[in-house]
Amino acid sequence: MLELRDLRKTFRRAAASAGAGSKRKGRGQAAPTTEHEPEVMVALDGLSLSVAPGRIVGFVGANGAGKTTAMRIALGVLAPDSGEVLVDGRPATSDDRRRFGYMPEERGLYPKMRVGDQIAYLARLHGYSAVEAEASTGRWLDRLGVAARRDDRVESLSLGNQQRVQLAAALVHHPRFLVLDEPFSGLDPIGVDVMSDVLRSAVAEGAGVVFSSHQLELVERLCDEVVIIRSGQVVAAGTVAELGGSSRRRRLSMLTSADPRVWLPSSYSVVDSSVDEGRWRSVVELPDGVDAAAATRAAAEAGDLLEATPIETSLTDIFREVVAR
Amino acid sequence: MSAQDQTTQASSGAWRLVAAREFNERRKERSFYVSTLVTLGILVVVLLLPKLFESGPPSVAFTGPDAAAVSETAVRIAEASGFELSISVDPVTDAKKAVVDGNVDVVVTPEGLVVKETIDPGLQAVLDSAVRQVRTVDALTAAGLSQEQIQSALASGGAVPVIAAEPRDAEASQRQGFAFAATAILYGQLLGYGFWVASGVVEEKASRVVEVLLATIRPRQLLAGKVLGIGALGLVQLIAIAVVGLGLAVAIGSLTWSASLGAAILTSFAWFLLGFVFYAAGYAAGAARVSRQEDLQNVVTPLNLMAIGSFFGAILALNAGDSFWVQVVSVIPPFSALMQPSLIASGDATVWSVVLAVVLMLLAIVGMVVLAARVYERSVLRIGAPISLKEALRS
Predict the structure, then answer these.
(1) What is A2-244's CATH number?
(2) Where are the alpha helices (DSSP H) in chain B?
(3) ipTM here
């Protein structure tokens, strides 16, 4: 189990002195103090999440919400101001972290180094012997379909192939936990399939995976759990079904023979309604604490309900709701 | 392999893996071969050019009734004063034509010394004395003196010796030549390999590979491996240049092998290592503050200026190695890195100054490495606009 517990992280940026117009916009919340004090950016504000072996966790949040910072802290690339990173309940050591696989958001390979040398080098940094590193490099390049490019320089590869090499770099040392920052960004549909397959099989072999993405349909399809963060805090976490169930905006699609706006109790709100040959097709938002079954009964009692179907809440809906809240 | 084995092995040798990568990747780069070949090419040209333009000793022809006597006397005087000349035995009918055509450099005629434009003062002195001596002998013979009397009179008027208060070392000129070449090559190596460290650091930042690396190793290990790997390659190249250059110089007779030359070479290698660690750490710290190769020039300029200043200091040391100020500046790091080899090669170094220079340089290296590691650790993950030194040290 990989756990991030109550992580806090602020960044200080030197305040731009008057007239010097090179002030950069930092990520995260800006909380400028006085003019001469450094500007303080809260990147993480008590963030916790956990990744169990054999599970894929989707890490979702708007740009600047703190995903990359959290992942960098998990990898030990950054140190948190407070909070801890635990592996199997103990604080993560550099030994633990050597069994992590990491794919940073901006990617990162030596452009002029040959593909095979590069992957083998990273395997050796993760503790493999020269022989094991070569063997594992061969296996992964083969598996990802870039074995023929082994002796080419990385910069001569297409972007798609560079992505595959990057994935090989994250997987070559058979990591226990994979931490992937936007692994799907920039991939073509075939690349997405390859990446999805690789993640599924890594999980099948017992690895735990956490990845960030803005492609929410993909997250919904692939992930066992989703963590949504906003301004460095977790605002929702659980399976997609759990998140949908706890959503305030549970909705029902109804077919009725009279206009529901007339006869439905006022605690229900009709978001959308159209009439066709004397039948009203409406989308109704349910009041707090009322589930779809109770709502269906209530509607049947109050009027002439012909048909009622609960509307599945998509991750995109949940995301919009919790992030906007 | 168990997880435990995997980690122990990696953490102890991470810097070695980094160093090996730097060494091997750069060894394969074309610029490495080009720079090695260019340096060797320059060395060969510098060594061979003087040989190509070298002419033998001046040739002299003698005419007139006293030709045989003057020639014989000139040879004797030249030998006595260590002056080399060759006697042309071809008959000369037109003295001016002979010198203009370049058949001989000087024709000694009863009227005087016929030359094309000018005459070497040493040669003039030799020939002048020879002619005068023959004329004196003739005059004394005509005055009725015996040959014995004439010889004893001439013997009393022998050449006036020169007594040098500080005689010049026989090896001095070859040492000067070697010291100059060593200074120029060391300067090139320090600047070239230092800049390689700098551009390597920026390459890792610009390509973001540094983030992947720092997920497995500490920044200090990465920094140490990079500096040591590139430094080792620089030393290998320096040794290759030294072997080829010195071999050629000894083979064509520009340099005579001696124990002091060997010592000067070893000292140069040692100072390369000291200087390199200092400069490379500085270059790495500077480079860590920027994210793009275009910004690199600004942050490494102070170090470049230091190296250029040291180079001129070293040239000054070649010509005025015993001056007080040269002696003072030559122990101050990082100037010592280029000035000490030059002073040692030219024979102007004293034991205390060498010891002091090494101690001060080691202290400077410790300071520079601590500072560089700090700046590097705090800057290497920050992508974007250049980070000021103050900001890098404080945050």
Answers:
(1) 3.40.50.300
(2) 3-27, 30-53, 67-81, 95-101, 121-142, 147-156, 172-206, 209-214, 219-251, 259-288, 293-319, 324-329, 335-346, 351-379, 389-394
(3) 0.76
